[in-house]
Structure formats: structure tokens, C-alpha cells
Specification:
mainly alpha; elongated; disordered N terminus
Length: about 240
Amino acid sequence: MKKVYFLVIIAILNMQYLDAQFLKDAKKMLNSKSKGLTEKDAADGIKEALVNGTGESVKSVSVLNGYWGNPEIKIPFPSEAKEMESKLRAVGMGKKVDEFNESMNRAAEKAANEAKPIFIAAIKNMTIRDAINIVKGTDNAATLYLKNNTSTELIEKFQPIIKTSLDDVNATRYWGDLITTYNKIPLVKKMNPNLPEYVTQKAIDGLFVMIAKEELKIRKDPMARTSDLLKKVFGN
């Protein structure tokens, strides 16, 4: 008899658990239905987020001190020429090194605006499946998508502009003076890194750092979701 009571109690408890789980699942489904999120919503939402995010990122780096005043993306002296920097500072060329460093960042700031139409074209070409994968993906999924789909074009577009900008802000002249002085120092290995190539890559790297920050903000901060569609896709 006791065994029968025990089995009845177990059955009742199981039913209560199943009811609770059913209600929980039903509520989730109801919320999902009321949210009414379609694949098109997801695609449109991620595109809107990317247009906003890339626009803000380009805007933030293309102003005065966009690179030079931001420690996260400030372009440093070429890493392969660190010894050159140290030796130049040791022979009293510190001011020239600083002027050169600033001029590289100014060149990047002048070129950055060219990225916007490239990003917008890549966003327009995004498929619904791409968008769904981004919504469901990691916190930097959109940034990685853009990086994979725009880097080659960004380099092609940026490099000639960077080269012209380097000339305009005297970076090329500063670099020539530094190289000439350094190569005259006894026993040093002669060098002349490709300056436009270096600044172009660093400028693009910095831009993607800022895009990743904007993406994370939209995913994590409700206040960054500035439209009903973004709230619908990423949550209120």
C-alpha cells in the first residue's frame, strides 16, 4: 500500500513539473509569436545596425585626432623600425620622430571617409542567410563579416589616398629625412619600409576596432538600439 502511495506522489510531482515546463515553453513561444520576428526583419535589422555602426565608426576616425588622439587605434612608428626609432631619438631626432608619427595619423584621418561607400555596398549585398548568421553569431560577427568582405577593396581604395595624404601632411618628407639620417649611422642595417602600405593597413585595422566597439554596443546596450526594428531584432 505504501508503495502505491509513493508511486502516486511521484506521478503527481512529474505532472506538476511537466505542466510548469509546458507553461514555460508556451510562454516562450507566445513571446516569440508576439515579437513577430521574421528572417527579413533580422536581415533588415542587421543591415540597419551595420549602416549605423560603420557610419559612426567612420565619423569618429575621420575627424581631427580621430586616430592621433585615440590610444586604441593611434598609428605607432613602424614596428619593424623600432630600433631605428630608438637610435634616431638617441641622436637628437626625437622631435622629427614625433612629427612623423603625428603626420601618419593625420594621413589616416584624411583617408577614412573613403571607407563609408565601400561598407554600404557590402551591407547592401548581404544575403538574408548572412544576416541571420550574424544575429545568431558572436559579439563581433558583423565586424568579421565586413572585414572578410571589404578588406581587399579598402586597401585598394585607401592606399593611393593615404599616399597622397602622406605627401600633403609632410609625412613623406619627414620619413625621408629620418631614413636618410638613420642610414648614415655607422653599423646599422639599412632600411626603408613601405610607408603607404604600413599606414594603410594600420588605418584599416583601427577602423575595424571602432566598428567592433559599435557592434558590441548595439548588442549589449539597449540605449544604442535607436529604432523599433533594432529593438525587435536585438531585444528591448
